[in-house]
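Technical annex B. To support the medicinal chemistry partners, we prepared a structural model of the target in complex with magnesium ion, based solely on the information shown next.
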Amino acid sequence: MSAVTDTVRVSVAKGGGVGQSIRDSLVIARRNVVRMLRIPEVVVFGLIQPIMFVVLFSYVFGGSISIPGAGISASGYREFLMAGIFAQTVTFAVAGSGAGIADDMHKGLIDRFRSLPMARGAVLTGRTIADLVQTALTLVVLAVVAVIVGWRTHENFGKVLAGFGLLLLLGYAFTWIGALIGLSVRTPEAATSGGLVWLFPLTFISNAFVPSQNMPAFLETIANWNPFSATVQASRQLFGNMPAGYPVPDAWPMQHPVWASLIWSALIVLVFRTLAVRKYRSTSA
Amino acid sequence: MPGAIHAEGLVKTFGDVRALDGVDLDVPEGTVLGLLGPNGAGKTTAVRCLTTLLTPDSGKATVAGIDVLKHPNEVRRSIGLSGQFAAVDEYLTGRENLQMVGQLYQMRAKAAKARAAELLERFGLADAADRPAKTYSGGMRRRLDLAAALIVSPPVMFMDEPTTGLDPRNRQSLWDVIQELVAGGTTLLLTTQYLEEADKLAHDICVVDHGRVIARGTSDQLKAQTGGERVEVVVHERDHMATARQVLAGFGKGETTVEEHTRKLTVPVTGGAKLLAEVIRELDARGIEIDDIGLRRPTLDDVFISLTGHVAEETGPTAGTEGADEATTSAPSAKEAGK
Ligand SMILES: Nc1ncnc2c1ncn2[C@@H]1O[C@H](COP(=O)(O)OP(=O)(O)O)[C@@H](O)[C@H]1O
Ligand SMILES: [Mg+2]
C-alpha cells in the first residue's frame, strides 16, 4: 500500500467553538503574512504614496494653509497634517484586503477554503489580521519619515500610543469594508479601484488636510461627522498636534473625538463583518 | 441502502440557465462514478452542490450518509475536493500549502506536517516541496491540488476534470494515483470531458448534457446500448468507394456511413470475425483494394453522438487514439479534409 491511502483515515478533530475560530484565523493570517513577505513590492509601493504625501503636503502646502490658532506656518501645518496622513494611509488597507480576497476568489482558493471544515469567518478574519500587521508596519515607517521632516508629538508616550491604537483600529475596520468589496467583484483590479474611488472624497471631505472650519458650511458639517474625521481629530489631540488656540468645532464627534472614533470603528467592523461573512458563506452562486 | 454519494432531483438555475435540471446520482461506497459531459453540461455545478459550495434550488443529497443541506460542516469533514482549476497558493511552497490545508481540516500542526511530507513524496513533489508553487508546472500544480484534497484521506472524493489541460504523461501519472486511491476504498465522483478517461477510471458512467443525465450504466452497458459492433473499411482508391458501399450494404444491419476524405466506410453488423472474413472475400472478389479493415466495438464517443446528436469533446485526450479519431467522424474540419 502506498502513501495515498495507508495513513489511517486521519481522525479529524471535532473542532467548533471560539478555539477553532481563533486557530483557523491564525492559520490564514500566517499564510497571508508569509505571502506579504514574499511579495515585498506590494508593501514597498504601499509606502511610497503616503511618504510622498508627507513630503508634498508639508513643503508644497505648508506655507499656504492657515490653521486656526497657529496661523500660517510650515512647521505648524506639518504637525497638524500628520494625523491626517496617518489616517488616510491606514484606510488604504481597504484596497489591499479587497484585492487579496478577490484574488483568492479568482484563483479558486476561496472555494477550497469553503469546502473545508473551517470556522465560518476565519478566512476573512485571517486576512484582516494580516492586513493589520501590514498597516502597523507601514505606520512605523511613516512615523519615522514624519519625524525626519520635523513632526513632533507633545503628549506623553501613553497618549501617543493610544493615538496610534485608534488609527490601527480604523484601518482594521476599513479592511472589513475591503473584504466585502473583494467578495463582490470579479477581479483584484476591480477590488482595488472599487476600494479607492470613494476613499478620496471620504478622506478629503474631512479635517485630515485642512481644518473643517475652512470649508463651506455644508461640507464642514459632513467633514465634522465623517467617521474618518473623528479618528483624525482624536489622534491629533493625543499626539498634542492641535494648535493651542484651535477652536474645536461644535459637532459632537469633534467634541468627543476619542469616543466617536471608537464608536465609528466598532460600528464599521460590526456591520461590514456581518455582511462580509454572510457573503462569504452565501451559496447562491 | 443509499451510496456514499446520493442525490435526488437536484435542480440549480442561474437566471435563465438550468445548470442542473433534475439530476439523480448514486455512487456505492468504494466505487467511481464518472460524470461525463461536454462543456456547460452542468458537471461543475453538480460537484459544487454536493460539496456544500452551492445550495440547489430543489432536490436533496447525502454524502457519506450526511445530509448536505442540513449538516454542511459535517460533510466537509468527510470529503476532499479537487476543483476544476488547481487551487493552490502560488506564493506558498508546496509543503506550506499542504500543511495549511491539513490544519484547516483541524489536524494538529505536527500531524499535518508529517502527512504533507508523505504526500509530497508520493506525488513526486519532494524535490520541489520548498519552492513557491508559482514555479510549478501545470501538472505539478494539479498534483499538489490533489494532494491537498487527500490530506486527511477523506472517505469521499470529488474531482472536477482532474486531467483537463494535462499532457499525456501527466495524465497517465494522475490516473495511476486515482486508481491507487480507489483501490484503497475511497469513493470517487469524477467529472470529465474525456470519454477515454471515464472508460478507464469509472465503474459507472452518467452522461450529462444540458443539466440532465441522459444515460447511465457501465461503459460496456452504454456501448451495448448504442448498438453492437461494426465493420470499418478504408479503401485504397476513391473510385472504389461506391462499389464498396454496395458490398457493405449487403452485410450491414443499418446505414453505412461514408467518410470521403479518409475513404472510410462504416456499417453496423452482427456476426463477428466470421462475417468480417466474408466481407473481405467479397471485396476481394470485386477487385477492391483495401488499406485497412477491422471489426470495431463502439466507443463512448459513439454513445455520446447517438445520445445527443453532437460530439462530446472538443479535443481528444491523446491525439490519434480511437476516441479522438472518432470525434472527427461527424465533424470533419477543412484541415482534416485536406490531408
Ligand atoms: N455562477 C454561475 N452563474 C451563472 N451561470 C452559471 C454559473 N455557474 C455555471 N453557470 C452556467 O451553468 C451551466 C453549467 O455550467 P457548469 O456546471 O460549469 O458546466 P460544466 O462544468 O459541465 O462545464 C453553464 O451554462 C454555465 O454557463
Ligand atoms: Mg466544469
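Notes passed to the chemistry partners:
Residues 151 and 318 of chain B are 30 Å apart (CA to CA).
Chain B has a mean pLDDT of 86.
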